[in-house]
Design brief:
Layout (H helix, E strand, L loop, with lengths): L5 H5 L1 H10 L9 H14 L5 H16 L7 H18 L2 H9 L6 H18 L3 H5 L5 H11 L7 H12 L12 H23 L10 E7 L2 E10 L2 E6 L4 H11 L5 E6 L5 E12 L5 H14 L8 E6 L5 E4 L5 H7 L5 E8 L5 E2 L2 E3 L4 E3 L6 E5 L13 E3 L2 E3 L2 E9 L10
């Protein structure tokens, strides 16, 4: 999930000007440059900019007495933060416009660079945040450092989680000013995503299925199904040898009749967008009797119904993966885009073995499913009461050797005509 920083929400003019002019400000900040910045504030709106001008004069004075005053990560961050975040808060859009026009407005990359250096320094010398800042950080600075930290591309998920915890553990929402509440909310959402990514990376290191609760054999349609249950609520289970070797060979023959196209996923806005991590084909009802029969078998086995027997075939090549995400829909999305209601369950069949990688991970449940040819994985996106379950966050682990190919079908809430009694 993308971080919604203050400029993205409150500074549309700033963002437009950054985009149009493609500005790059220098990392070298001199007393002369500070004087120029102060003059811009004074000419723009001296009364409103009084707070910012006062701080800049103090920095200018300190820099004249100590030319290395800003060769300090935290001092540099505070100055860049003042210009980048606070210009429109304490001044107005006209001041921001003039700073950008004069190529004196810092960009987010500079903030990311400074925060990245702070973290690397703490890692290298085993320092605490107070060792770097030389003071107790207030809520505002903790929030804004965290906001930038989430976007530093050079840091590992592990480092980000570690320092996000240090920054945010002592932040109480009651202490956050209304102005920064959107940032606080966004940080917590993205922090959860970050933890999911870290746990996803860890669980994808497995080679065998992890998280088994119990195993059972059920006899249906004159066939014994070997079922490995990984979670009871939400329900997650693997049906081993769901397809026979003969059926798997036939599946590959059927797939070869179609041409793969670039993969498509649905965005949060309900739109479709192409992705690079997979190729796919959609086999509609009437195009393959074989896959229709497989779909029917899943329907009967799970007591589920769908409006068509469409199967989607996904192919992940070397390096292909799908980051952790959820497949349920929220109420707003359903009202706008889904006439058949929430997406409550997904069935996925592994059509090939993958030599290294290519598994399926659910980081919040501690579940990993090895990509075993012929096995079917079924998971519900809702709990036993039909409520969306955040624990169903899942993803496809990277393929390191071989090709992963799976068949997918999904089930929507309003299409179910066989409901179990409570």
């Amino acid at each position: 999930m993308k971080v919604i920083s203050l400029p993205n929400m409150f500074f549309p003019l700033t963002l437009i000007m950054h985009s149009v002019l493609q500005l790059k400000s220098s990392h070298v900040i001199t007393p002369g440059k500070l004087k120029e910045i102060i003059q811009i504030y004074q000419s723009s709106s001296p009364f409103l900019c009084h707070h910012v001008i006062s701080i800049l004069r103090d920095v200018e004075s300190a820099l004249r007495h100590e030319d290395e005053y800003l060769e300090d990560c935290f001092r540099r961050f505070k100055l860049l933060k003042l210009l980048y975040y606070d210009t429109e808060r304490y001044c107005d859009k006209f001041a921001s416009y003039n700073l950008i026009k004069a190529r004196l407005m810092p960009n987010k990359t500079e903030l990311e660079s400074v925060v990245g250096m702070m973290v690397n320094m703490m890692d290298a010398y085993n320092l605490d945040i107070r060792d770097v800042t030389e003071t107790e950080l207030d809520v505002e600075n903790r929030l804004l450092i965290a906001d930038v930290l989430l976007e530093v591309g050079s840091l590992s998920y592990q480092s980000k989680v570690k320092y996000m915890k240090l920054l945010m553990d002592s932040v109480n929402i009651e202490e956050v000013e209304d102005y920064y509440l959107p940032v606080y909310t966004s940080i917590h959402e993205d922090w959860n995503d970050l933890i999911n990514m870290l746990n996803f990376e860890r669980i994808c290191a497995n080679r065998e299925t992890v998280g088994t609760l119990y195993c059972k054999i059920e006899y249906r349609f004159y066939q014994a199904f070997h079922i490995e249950v990984l979670s009871d609520d939400p329900y997650v289970a693997v049906y081993h040898r769901f397809l026979t070797d003969l059926e798997l060979d036939q599946a590959n023959i059927e797939v070869e009749k179609f041409n793969f196209e670039k993969g498509v996923v649905m965005t949060n806005d309900g739109d479709s967008e192409q992705v690079d991590f997979r190729d796919q084909i959609e086999i509609d009802e009437g195009e393959s009797i074989f896959f229709e029969n497989i779909h029917h078998r899943i329907d009967m086995l799970e007591n589920l119904s769908s409006h068509s027997r469409t199967m989607e075939i996904y192919k992940y090549r070397l390096g292909g993966s799908h980051e952790p995400h959820v497949d349920f829909y929220d109420d707003q999305h359903i009202k706008k885009h889904e006439e058949h209601g929430n997406r409550i369950a997904i069935a996925m069949i592994f059509l090939r073995d993958t030599e290294i990688g290519g598994g399926f991970g659910m980081p919040r449940l501690g579940v990993f499913v090895a990509p075993t040819r012929g096995a079917m994985l079924i998971w519900y996106n809702v709990d036993r009461y039909g409520r969306n379950s955040e624990d169903t966050v899942h993803g496809g682990c990277p393929v390191y050797k071989g090709t992963k190919m799976i068949a997918i079908t999904e089930y929507n809430e309003l299409l179910q005509n066989k409901v179990c009694e409570i």
